[in-house]
Design a protein that fits this description.
Elements lengths: L4 E3 L2 E2 L1 H14 L3 E5 L3 E2 L3 H12 L4 E3 L1 H9 L5 H8 L1
Parallel strand pairs: 1-3, 2-4, 3-5
Helix pairs in contact: 1-2, 3-4
Length: 85
């Protein structure tokens, strides 16, 4: 698709998300993980996964920040639709 930025969401931040993000970074992608769109069964594993990703150039962000970036501002009608999802 010719894009180099990837947003990852899903479960097991310390396993699936972390390992996938590291592989994508190694392949030259810019990886973003909204912290509020991932998790782990145990809080310590979640925190460890986020810390590890930070040390591998993954950008930890939030879903709200990602929405603003896509839409450019919150004055658009789409913002309300997206934030309700």
């Amino acid at each position: 698709m010719g894009r180099n930025q990837i947003i990852l969401t899903g479960l097991e931040a310390h396993i699936s998300i972390m390992q996938t993000s590291i592989e994508l970074i190694e392949k030259g992608f810019d990886v973003f993980v909204p912290a509020d769109t991932t998790g782990s069964r145990y809080l310590e594993n979640y925190k460890a996964g986020l810390r590890r990703m930070l040390h591998t150039e993954v950008t930890i962000t939030s879903s709200d920040a990602t929405n603003f970036e896509w839409l450019r501002n919150a004055n658009q009608e789409q913002y309300e639709v997206i934030t309700r999802l």
